[in-house]
Amino acid sequence: MSRRAHLKTLLDELQPQDAMLREQRARMLALLANAKDPFARESYQPGHFTASAFIFDPAQRALLLILHGKLGLWLQPGGHIDPDDTDVIAAARREVSEEVGLSDLELASPGLFDIDIHEIPARGSTPVHQHFDLRFLFLAQDRLARAGSDARDARWVPLQEIEALHSDASVVRIAMQLNARARTR
Fold first, then answer.
1. Phi/psi of residue 132, each to 5°?
2. Which helix (H) or strand (E) covers residue 155, if one does?
3. Residue 46, preceding bond cis, omega within 30 degrees?
4. d(CA 53, CA 129)
5. How many independent structural domains does the chain possess?
6. Which CATH number goes with the domain that contains 47?
7. Confidence bin at 178 (pLDDT 50/70/90)
8. Per residue in 70-114, pLDDT tens?
9. Cα gap 87→8, rounded to integer Å
């Protein structure tokens, strides 16, 4: 199955829980259908797909976040989809390996866990564009992570402490969702 067909299946299976996510899903499906190469990092109008990972610690009480080198925010590991990534899940796994050194991950939620579209500011010759982020939930088998590649730091952050970090609203939204789910278990 091609990357494009695989992503179409993942987006079709996603059940957005609110109007914002339904609108973002529709925009992602339009990008997938209309862009020449929606995975190419040089695709700026309106942007391109990226892949990222929310990673639970083995006890499912903390998420692994990185201090992003360029943005200065605590975010989930992730980034661009490379031409040799077989699919978007493989891209998310590769980004985790590069940014925090973890490779022994179990997909904790089948398919897409979340999506987010966010603006990337202009930098050098790169114009303002959007990242159409495809997010997966993984369970780590250990807590042996280290900062690498785009990360200035990496740390396991308890779910209830994420809101206090200098982060992104979508990361806080996910932490609150996971924290609520953990309390009902």
1. -100, 90
2. strand 151-158
3. yes
4. 21
5. 1
6. 3.90.79.10
7. confident
8. 788 999 999 999 999 999 999 999 999 999 999 999 999 889 999
9. 11
Residue type, 148: G
Question: In this model, does residue 158 exceed pLDDT 90?
Answer: yes
Alpha-carbon span 154 to 169, nearest angstrom? 19
Among 134, 113, 133, which residue's Cα sits nearest to residue 178?
113
pLDDT at 185: 61
Measuring CA to CA, how many Å separate 164 from each of 138, 159, 167, 169, 184?
A: 23, 10, 8, 11, 23
> Helices 88-100 & 3-13, crossing angle to 10 degrees?
90
Residue found by looking up tokens 């495809």 in the block: 134
Give 102: exposed, middle or buried? Use CB within 10 Å, 0-12, 13-18, 19+. buried
Strands 47-56, 78-80: pairing is antiparallel
Containing domain of residue 95, as a range? 3-183
